[in-house]
Design a protein that fits this description.
alpha+beta; seven-stranded mixed barrel; 16 strands; 28% strand; elongated
């Protein structure tokens, strides 16, 4: 995603220009390369759908946007009048539960949960190609454990530890997800990726250097890694010490994390929020343990 400010008028209503800025950011296409949208949003949506179709993508309406849960980009049109303003507002939402990560017309909406916003309509940019392609095997990766943290219950403070016992298919002893009491613990423990979470120390260092510090405990992840590309572990088997793990998907930030850890957390962690992991065997994980792909 790229940052795009609200382009100056003329060239359509404020919401058309705001939506154009959002679409440019989501597709990572320069604003000037988008087709001329027309003066009204309905006309603009038609023009953009045609343009996206030529790139094997679509602009798909979301039936119930306030209840929509998907850890990806989508664009919402918010009722500005209901918020005490006037014109409708276009925003980009991200995460599960989703929050606003780009709001060209009203920056004060950044971080707001979409469930709390009066959304008029919403759209996801989706590929028209349904084929799931096999990713090639990546290179060997290695790093180390720089920190460990547990929370005994949902929304409880994270506690730093030096050693944690991992249980296959459950989580770390003493952590809320090991007993199925995390905020997002799945019913029946049937969904993958809820045993363990990782985040890279380099990401937190990068945010601190940019003036947006987020501590390891504030990230609410279990394992702080050093020296390994966490995102590259998606779909791969690896070991933390002697504990075998499976990287399932990115652990994207959400409006819940923003609420617990303070404003400004959601946006800088997009695509940098860490990794969701399944534990494949029991064992001990310690600070200083090596991390290596199998």
């Amino acid at each position: 995603m790229i940052d795009v400010d609200l382009p100056p008028g003329p060239g359509g209503t404020a919401v058309v220009r705001g939506f154009a800025a959002c679409l440019s950011s989501v597709t990572e296409v320069a604003l000037g390369d988008l087709p001329d949208p027309g003066p009204e949003l309905a006309d603009a949506l038609g023009a953009w759908r045609t343009w996206l179709a030529g790139r094997s993508s679509g602009l798909v309406p979301i039936a119930e946007p306030r209840r929509f849960q998907w850890a990806g980009w989508w664009i919402a049109v918010v009722d500005g009048q209901a918020l005490g303003g006037g014109d409708p507002l276009a925003v980009v939402a991200f995460g599960t539960p989703p929050g606003v990560v780009l709001s060209p017309q009203a920056p004060q909406l950044l971080g707001r949960a979409t469930a709390d916003l009066p959304i008029l309509e919403a759209y996801a940019v989706a590929s028209l190609d349904p084929v799931l392609r096999t990713a090639p095997a990546g290179p060997s990766l290695s790093g180390s454990v720089a920190g460990l943290a547990l929370a005994p219950a949902a929304e409880a403070p994270m506690r730093l530890v030096t050693t944690a016992h991992a249980r296959a298919g459950q989580g770390l002893d003493g952590d809320r997800y090991a007993v199925g009491e995390g905020t997002f613990s799945p019913r029946g423990r049937t969904r993958p990726g809820y045993d363990l979470t990782l985040i890279a120390e380099e990401v937190l260092d990068e945010l601190a250097a940019a003036g947006r510090p987020i501590g390891f405990q504030a990230s609410r992840r279990n394992v702080l890694t050093r020296g390994i590309d966490v995102n590259a572990l998606v779909g791969r088997t690896f070991r933390i010490g002697d504990v075998e793990c499976a990287g399932r998907r990115l652990c994207e930030p959400c409006s819940h994390l923003e609420r617990l850890s303070g404003p400004g957390v959601l946006r800088p962690l997009v695509n940098k929020g860490g990794l969701r992991v399944d534990l494949l065997c029991d064992g001990e994980i310690r600070v200083g343990d090596g991390i290596r792909t199998v």
